[in-house]
Design brief:
The protein is of the alpha+beta class. It is 37% helix and 19% strand. It folds into 2 domains: 95-283, Penicillin-binding protein 2a (Domain 2); 289-658, Beta-lactamase (3-Layer(aba) Sandwich), CATH 3.40.710.10.
Amino acid sequence: MRWAPGSPARPWRPSSPRRSLPRWRGRSGSSESREMATRPVHVVSREVPPELQLRMVVAIGIVCAAFALVGLRLWYLQVERGAQMRYYSEKNRIRLVRVPAPRGVVYDRNGEILIDNRPSFDVVFVPEDAGERRRQVLRTLAGYLGEEEAGLHQGVRAPGGDREHYQGIVLRRDVDWQGVVALETHQLDLPGVSLRVAPKRYYPFGPLAAHLLGYVGEVSKSELAQDDGDYVGGDLVGKAGLEKSFDKDLRGDPGDQQVEVDALGRRVRVLQEEPDRSGGTLTLTLDRDLQEAADRALGEADGAIVALDPRSGEVLAMVSHPSFDPNVFARGIRSAEWRTLVEDRKHPLNNRAVQGVFPPGSTFKVAVATGALEEGVVTPFTGVTCTGGMPFGNHFFHCWKKGGHGAVDLHKAIVESCDVFFYQVGRRLGVDGIAEYAHRLGLGLPTGIALPHEQTGTIPDTEWKRRRFSQPWFEGETLSVAIGQGYVTATPLQMANLAATMANGGTRRRPFYVKRVVSPDGTVLEVEPEVLGEAHLKKSTLAQVREGMREVVMSESGTGKKARVPGIVVAGKTGTSQVVKMGEDRARANRGTQVMRDHAWFIAFAPFDAPEIAIACIVEHAGGGGGAIAAPVVQQVLAHYFGRNQGPARPAQEANALRPPTDHAL
C-alpha cells in the first residue's frame, strides 16, 4: 500500500536484509508479551524546519555583532584611549594634592610679632567624588556648617573652567571645632568633602596698623592671569598694604603630596611627599608700642597720624581711622561683612595716611614762607598790618583771628599763623613760585613709599589750571593757595615728609617701613635709606622757618603750645582745613553736622636741635583748629616716644568735646 502525503505515518520497516525481530517470550507465553514485541517504534526526523532556520541565522548574527561591538569598545578604551583611561584611573585612586606653604612672619623693629600664622581647618570639596549627589551633598554640608546653601554653590562655581579634574575647591576656611566634629562624624553622608589643615594668616593686634600691614584673600582670576605661575585657584595672596607690596617675599613654596583615596574621596594614606617651604621673614621699622600710643591718642576720631625718622625716612608709626580687622579677611570674609565695609560712608578700607587728600590749611605756610625767603620777596623784617582781613577785588579775605594780629613780621606770622601776612606773601610770590617750592619740599609728588594706591595730592599752578579746566589763573585764587586752601591738597604722609625735610636740613628721603628681609634660604637683605632729592635751601632760610616753627610750640603766643613735651624742644605748625568758606557759614557748620566741620592739622619734629621724629596728624571734621584738636594728639605721641608720658593719651574726640566752640586757633 502506498503512503500518500498527509496520511498517517506509515509503520517503520527495517531495511534489508530483512531480519526478524526477536520475539519476546515470556515464561507463560502470554498475549501481552506478544503484543509488546510486535508494537511499532516512531523516530522524529533530525531535519530543522525551514521556518526556524531564518530565526537561527538572525540570532547568531545578533550575537556576533554584539561581541564585535564589545570587542571594538574594548579596543577603543584600552588601545586608542588607554593612556587617558589609565590617567583617570590613577586620578580616581591616587591624587596629587597641593600643600599650601606658610607665609612669612612679620616683626616690628623690636622683634615683636605683627603678623603670624596658625593652623586652620578648611573645608575642601571635590565635585567629581560627589557625582550626581552634588546638590544633596552641598545641602547637607550647609546644614552642618550652619550656612546658606547658595553660598556653597557660589563657591563651587567660582573657579569656573580653570579648575582641573579632581582639584579640590576650598569652600570654607577656619571652620570652628563644632563644624570639624560634625563633618568628621558624617563623612559617609558627604562624599567629596574633606577637611584640610592649612596655615592661616593671624594678626595678633587686630586693627592695629591694619592699613599698613594689609590683608590676604583668595587669588582672583585677574591676578592668576598676571601671575608667573606660582599660584593656583584657591591660594591666598596679599590684597592690600605690606601683604600686597611684599607678596613675593612673603609667599612660600607650596609642597605636594601623592595621596591614595577611597571611593568617597577620603584620604587613605600618603604615598609620597615633597615638603613645603615657608616664605621670607620681614622686620619692619614700625614701633608697635609707639603705634599703639598713636592709635590710642587718636581715639575714636577719624583721621591719620604718620611718624617718620627724619634721619633715614623710616616709618615709626602709621595710623588711619576708622580701621578694620584683617583677621576677617584671613578666615574668608562673608558677603554681608564685605558689603558693610564697602558701603560705610567713612570708608574704613582706605588708608588715609597715603590715600586721603585734604587741604593742608596753615601747615602749608611753611612751604610759602620758605619760597618767599628764597626768592627774596620778603625778609625776616618785612612788616604787614593785620586788621582781621584784607579786601581784594570785590571779595574780603578774612584772617582766622577776627580782631586781627596788628603789626606782623615773618616770625610772628608763622608763630601766630596770620592769614593776612600770607595773603600778601602769596601775591608777591605768585602761584607758580608757591608751586615750585612746594614741589621742592615733596608736595604734589609721590613719596615713593611701597604701598599701593598712593595719592599725590594737588599743587596748582597756571599751567595746571589751563590743562585741567581750560581757564586762566586768577590772582584772587593765589590768596587761597597761600594759606593752603583752594585747589591745594596733600596726604598726611606728604606733610610728615615735609616736616622731616625741614627737620633734617632740606633732604627729601623716601619713606620706607621694611628694614630687613630674610629669605627662606637664609639670605639677609638690609634695606638702605634712599635720598629722593635736595630742596636746595639756604641755611638762613631753613633757620628762619625752623625758628618760627619752634616758637609755634614753645612760646606763649604760639598756636601749637598744647604740643609741648616737658624737657623736649618741639617745633611744629598748626593748620585748619576748611570744608566751607570762612565767615558766618563756617562758624555755623562747625557747630552743626559733623561732615561740614573743619579738619584739624598739626605737623611737628623733635628734638629741635637733633630731630629724631617728624610727625603729621589730621583729625577729620574736628570742628576746630589744629592747635586745639590735633596738637594735643601729637603731644601724646611725642611724650610716649621720649618716655615722658604724663598719663594716658586723651583721645581727639575728648579734646574736641572740651574745646570752647569759638576756638579757631590755627
